[in-house]
Specification:
mainly alpha; about 160 residues; 8 helices; elongated
Length: about 160
């Protein structure tokens, strides 16, 4: 009814009136209404305001990625390596539980998904984990310390 009045007042072409009427008829069916309402509610309630994800995405990689000379033996580097690994694992688990586990399969492949920043954060944490492994193998204390310095400010968000 409203579509008819609008089309008459504004005097749209006849084909537009038919499209509007058909669109209104399809939306007017009961099951389509429920789907539309559910979709709008979910889209309105979805948020990507997770501070952990935002802060992980904001951290940058260590500036010096070159292999340094042996500046520590493996035994003395283990505590720093384990601390970095613990932080990375805790953040990864927290992001998975809070942001990744509740999403649907269709949302995983959606480019505009609210989960996209969470996937980016997990990727960044995985890259930090790989750097952590590499620096331990190279016995690069400076690299491990740089990773630790980058991750330490985030530990305030660990639950």
């Amino acid at each position: 009814m409203l579509a008819t009045q609008l089309a008459v007042k504004v005097s749209f072409p006849q084909f537009y009136f038919m499209d509007t009427f058909l669109m209104f008829a399809v939306v007017n069916t009961p099951h389509i209404k429920k789907v539309l309402i559910a979709t709008l509610l979910l889209a309105g309630c979805a948020s990507n305001d997770n501070p952990v994800v935002s802060e992980v995405n904001a951290i940058s990689f260590p500036a010096n990625l070159e292999a340094a000379s042996n500046n520590g033996d493996a035994a003395s580097l283990q505590p720093l390596y384990r601390d970095n690994k613990r932080i990375i694992d805790q953040f990864s688990n927290q992001i998975r539980k809070a942001c990744i586990d509740p999403i649907s399969q269709a949302e995983v492949l959606n480019i505009r998904s609210q989960a996209r920043p969470a996937f980016n954060a997990l990727t960044k944490l995985e890259q930090f984990g790989e750097l952590n492994e590499m620096f331990l193998k190279q016995q690069n204390r400076d690299g491990l310390a740089q990773i630790n310095t980058a991750l330490k400010p985030l530990t305030a968000h660990l639950s």
